[in-house]
Amino acid sequence: MSIGKKAKIAVNLPEAPAAEQLSDLLARCALRDQRAFATLYQVSSAKLFAVAVRITRRRDWAEEVLQEAFVNIWNHAAGYNSTKSAPMTWMTAIVRNRALDWLRRPREVEIDEEHEELMASIPDESPGPEELLRRSLEAGELAECMKTLTEEQQRGITLAFFYGLSHGELAEQMRKPLGTVKTWIRRGLDRLKSCLDELSR
Amino acid sequence: MRFADEKLRDKLAAGYVLGTMSARARRRFEIHLRSNPQLRRAVAQWETRLSPLADALPAIEPPARVWQAIKTRLQIGRPAGARFWESLSFWRVSSFASAVLALALIFLVVAPKPETPVDAGRMVVVMNDLATKKPAMTASWEPAQRGSRTLRIRVIGHAEMAPNTAWELWMLPGGDQKPVSLGLITTHETQVVKIPEALAAKLDSARGLAMSVEPAGGSPTGVPTGPVLCAGESIRT
User: N or C: which terminal CB in chain A sees fewer CB atoms within 10 Å?
Assistant: First the structure.
């Protein structure tokens, strides 16, 4: 598949679809309603494509990932449980997992070099992890809790989340020993969890 | 590996969701995930905790070829907005069913007979298990001009219901309409469900029936929330 040059950032997208609408659509997909599936794709694919592009850092890979993910969503819609997670969270997890599988698939050495190159050329026009963190933290409980982390912890967690970096790749990117990075991430996540649990109590 | 330790479960779930696991660790973890509901819960919790991060990404419209590829993969050709009968003719044409298609074809096990007189015969639905594709349940009733309907259910084989869950029966009106609950059923081999007059006409013309697993007491939202175990299309005999 060729690189999707034509894909562009949608400026005037309507509001994010309501969780209730997405839950209804997923329930109908579970009952094999193709029209519901088409609507689900229409309303959610741009958000999910952004997740795939961010992690794979290549449009053509992201297209493959999005395709895989929607095949999964259709086939596993019956397993979605709206009382356990929000529909967008569930679908985002499917996209992220497919994207991470894609990044971690066995590769030739030359593709690894390509990967290195890509790592160095993370697109400039798109917001970096710090900017994304700032945006996602404008409101909400995760925001409150992220603020309680050290700078390194925040940076490590956002780099891992947005770029799908493994511990090893994180250590390289942050120029720190593997053990140090692992500890930052681990302590950061622990702190986040206890903070979020406290807030939701 | 044992996952009795909650801390260990949580640590692994967090690494999996954040994406810092190596490929091998991911594969191993996913195998445990399939058989361990506590681990699945820990993963779902981390997904929910970190999901606000993903909300910050600006949306990017994917090229049209992605949807084309998905439709080809799943053998679903119906454009959004098409009528149900159009999809039927589509299905008849594309009867070279792949394994994936077989799953999608549950509604079309038998092609409809367009020339059947309105008041002839019984309505029958054979609901196939979505996993095994084998018949799991049948339902039949006499269509009528007025009054309630008596739905006769037959559960095939020795089905088991998990504790604190319920089986909810759904009518699929077809088209763009949401499933309509017909109430809870049991695992008994034969049972009868009374359908009130208000739903009766809709039932006679419904596209099919389905059954989902819901929390005890039934779906809290009015639409199926749990896994759909079986579904099938209405056939006029």
Answer: C
The count of other CB atoms within 10 Å of the CB of residue B204 is 18
Domain end position, chosen among A66, A81, A110: A110
Which pLDDT score, from 0 to 100, does residue B92 have? 38
Are residues A23 and A96 both part of a single domain?
yes
Q: Examine the fold and report which residue of A77, A110, A143 is the final residue of a domain before the chain moves on.
A: A110
Residue A120 lies in a domain: no
Cβ under 8 Å to A: B residues 14-73: 14-15, 17-23, 26, 41, 43-44, 47-63, 65-67, 69-70, 73
CATH topology of domain B107-236: Immunoglobulin-like (2.60.40)
Q: What is the ipTM of this complex?
A: 0.77
- Order the strands of the B149-155 sheet from edge to edge: B180-185, B165-172, B208-215, B228-236, B123-129, B135-141, B149-155, B190-195
The residue with tokens 């919790």 is: B45
3-class secondary structure, B208: strand
Q: Which of B24, B31, B50, B60 to mutate to test the interface with A (most CBs of A within 10 A)?
A: B60
Q: What local confidence, expressed as pLDDT, does residue A4 receive?
A: 39
Q: How far apart are the C-alpha atoms of B227 and B213, rounded to whole Å?
A: 6
Residue A200 lies in a domain: yes
B147: left (phi over 0), alpha (psi -120 to 50) or beta: left
Letter for the amino acid at A116? Answer: E
What digits encode the pLDDT tens for the residues A66-94? 999 999 999 999 888 888 889 999 999 99
Inter-chain residue contact A8 with B61, CB threshold 8 Å: yes
| Distances in whole angstroms, Cα of residue A80 to Cα of each of A23, A90, A161, B27, B62 | 9, 8, 23, 22, 24
Residues A33 and A105 in one domain: yes
Question: Considering the entire predicted model, what is its pTM?
Answer: 0.62
The pLDDT value recorded for residue B118 is 47
Separation CA A144–CA A196 (nearest Å): 9
Distance of alpha carbon A27 from alpha carbon A21, whole angstroms: 10
Domain of A22? 14-110
Alpha-carbon gap, residue B56 to A51, rounded angstroms: 10
Q: Look at residue A6 and tell me if it is in a domain.
A: no
Strand segments, DSSP code E, in B99-164 are 123-129, 135-141, 149-155
Where are chain B's structural domains? 6-55, 107-236
